[in-house]
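It is worth pausing here to work through a concrete case rather than discussing structure prediction in the abstract. The textbook approach is simple: state the sequence, then state the predicted structure, then interpret. We follow exactly that order.
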Amino acid sequence: MIIHIYLGVFLLFWGSFGQVMGYQADERLVINERATSDVFAEKPAPAAFEKKPDKSDSAVVAIEGLQAYQAEVLKASLEQPVVLKIYSNKSSESKKMIPVFQKVAEKFNSRVKFASMDLLSEQDTNKENYHIVFNLMAMLHIRQMNMPVFVFFFKGNLHLPAPIIQGFLTEENLEDQIKTRFFS
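Step two, the predicted structure:
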């Protein structure tokens, strides 16, 4: 039963794999605007305790959708290394990681680009975020993710041999990971 579910998810998202990894042109993604606008027409108000960071003064770029992913992560990684944090506002580990990620982003601001993608955002692009993450999971043979997840990109590709780290990291651990992967 579980194998059938994983196979179904894999086959469902395999078609957009090339788009997510940047192998096809952006124009091939066709979204039925009327269908998505009907689904997302009534959005609940965000919870009062969830503070949204001001994007203008932040060292971390918020990724919302496939086009932002391709521009801010894949294309930007051709010029400099990129660290993508995939998180969920519902996860306590992800909430604890927000200030740590911000501090490290400020330290490496000119040498490494930092981006974050919320899987439970209330944006219309949330469905595209799921496609991106599920395709990354399929490509890396990951069955489940422990939030937050850090994905490392360099020169337009995943930074191999281990492009992903799952779970909470201290500020020192994250700095060490970045230094070892990109500057050693």
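Step three, interpretation. The chain has a mean pLDDT of 76. Residues 126 and 176 are 31 Å apart (CA to CA).
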